[in-house]
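Supplementary Note 2. Why include the ligand at all?

Several targets in our set were suspected to adopt different conformations when bound, so apo predictions alone were not considered sufficient. For every target with a known small-molecule partner we therefore ran a joint prediction. The input for acetoacetyl-coenzyme A is given below.
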Amino acid sequence: MTAASDTVSYEIVGDVGLICLENPPVNAASASLRAGIVAALQALEIEVSAIGIYGAGRAFIAGADIKEFGQPQADPILPEVCLAVENCAVPVVAIVHGPTLGGGLEVAMSCHARIALPSLRAGLPEVLLGIIPGAGGTQRGPRLMGVRNTLDLATTGRHVKADEALALGLVDRLDEGAPRDVALRAAQEVIAGRLATRRTAEIIVKADRTVLNEFASALRAKQAHLFSPHKAVEAVAFASGDFAHGMQREREIFQECIQSPQRAGLIHAFFAERAVGKYPEMGATPREVAEVGVVGGGTMGAGIATACLLAGLKVVLLEMNVDALDRARATITGNLDGAVKRGKMSAEARDAALGELLKLSTKYPDFSACDMIIEAVFEDMTVKKQVFRNLNLHAKPGAILATNTSYLDVDEVAKATARPESVIGLHFFSPAHVMKLLEIVVGAHTAPEVVATGFALAKKLRKIAVRAGVCDGFIGNRILNHYRKVADYLIMDGASPAQVDAAVRGFGFAMGPFQVMDLAGLDIGWATRKRLAPTRPAEERYVEIADRVCENGWFGRKAGRGYYDYPDGTPNADVLQIIETERAKAGITPCDFSDQEIVERYMTAMVCEAVRILEDGIAQRPIDIDAVQLFGYGFPRHHGGPLHYADSIGLAEIVARAERYASEDAHYWQVPRLLRELADTGGSFAELNQAAG
Ligand code: CAA
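The joint prediction is reproduced in token form.
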């Protein structure tokens, strides 16, 4: 093997040249990989009759190196690499396996033939990062698999497996074996004339306006707020013309996307998902978890049980009586039926989960074999402590005792046991078998291996876990409680709930705060407000509208009424009446808020509380808070999370807004110390993330 660069090596076997790509973990097309490919091609094309190119490790090439985006690119850039491959003096065959995505698929498309191994996952996921394929994907894609298929892959970012790639025309043949062996065999077949090769750029594409229009209008209807999917369609439209011209247009459009703030937000979200997996206790060895106990079979308990069953874990679910157990079983069955319908589970696996993995019980001693027990009972400290006293008596030594509280003090719960080191908070989000986020709440005495076990469980359940410290509401609900107040202030001062919701949707959230409250149930927030009433500071402005709504029993969707009437979801006129009455009582003359003003106040409130959470050490890094909002609260991915958003508009601007609003309410709109410091010194949350590693 001869090194062409740090990450690329080549060898000559008879009249075949083999190029091996090795840039762990996923062979991202870094500067070294790009330069290495070109150098290896130059060295080989004068020596051999055909070349096979393959990836070592788990991927062919998982795409451009995302870490380089937004920075100046070292030569050769990926389109040049693709051109060098396509113009190579001898045929080049790509052996594609594992993730072959974005720029990786574009390198493969530039080769003269492609052979897929069974592990192939091919795709053009650039739109998920706010860009478009920038190395010929929009031009070579249509030449190999047609305009429709290219648009499908390039606008959805979906991955295709080997057999579908073959059906699409993306690869020429399927094979099995070690990538190097297949590469050698394939190149020999090319030389022997048994594997046909061609130059992709020379294939003619028929202009297909109908398909282009179909995709363009579907995107306008569904993803009007996004930038890059529309741009992908624009680029693909050039594929039916001159190849070089199409490549040039693709490059220009790609650069436009690179400059867009959406690109920065989406890439931040990509790294947030991965960054949260790094936490202080990650060196500890997790305890083994094969059997999980769940206390409580309501929506949350049944959802947690479902998530565990979907991951193949044994579950013991405890309820007070047989009727409650019947209801829990029905909920779990419904959840699993849904998973079967969505193709997440086979019907046989569902039957096995219900028949063999799930055990229902009314007795604590049935938890004796459980490695972890998750409590999901009513949100009340007295009730939770009673449950934990029982768990302390019946759980085996070393079992982890987890509370699924959304707000309550995990350390206080732990006091009900003689083993606080084994107690942890696992805050699931409803529906627990669907929602991605899991807050891992670490108490004062929680042992490192218990924290590590929480993260390991999250991985098994395919969830994104974020470490949080103990405070009322942890990361997510503490922020929610804060910005919910600003939503109340806005309706008290002049906006309607529907206007606030529409403005927030306009920012990119799927739902506004009042719609979310209706969905979650207004009684939950009501109970929290009552619980916190004794500790509410005297200076805090308190809006009573939500209490009046709850006093009428309008708890949202489940009650048929809330801020909206259901099932049609029109504004509840009686709530508008309540708002008017409350305003009159407080002597408020309603003012007009623009949608922009609503969003600015809403976001500023969110950012301020997020910063206080950082100051208090409840979250380790800004990116953890962004992840909580992105994966648990529907924060629009293209804005990257509240603290990325704050960076993107400038911290001085956030401070200026808060100071402006403080003239109306100095208590609520206090500027957090850290925010002011960063704004004054030109710092950013991105720098804090970097410093934290
Ligand atoms: N660039 C840089 N780093 C990457 C990367 C990329 N394209 N893809 C993955 N990584 C890194 C991850 O950040 C992670 O790093 P850490 O271990 O330090 O956190 C590591 O590789 C492993 O990744 P995952 O944890 O995600 O592993 P996985 O097995 O769950 O998933 C994957 C593997 C399917 C490749 C997934 O990482 C993925 O989807 N990556 C992004 C692929 C992509 O979007 N490619 C297109 C890039 S854009 C492009 O190519 C533009 C162009 O045309 C020029």
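Residues 25-26, 28, 62-67, 78, 99, 101-103, 106, 125-126, 129, 131, 133-135, 274 surround acetoacetyl-coenzyme A (CB under 6 Å). The mean pLDDT is 96. Comparable summaries for the other entries are listed in the accompanying table.
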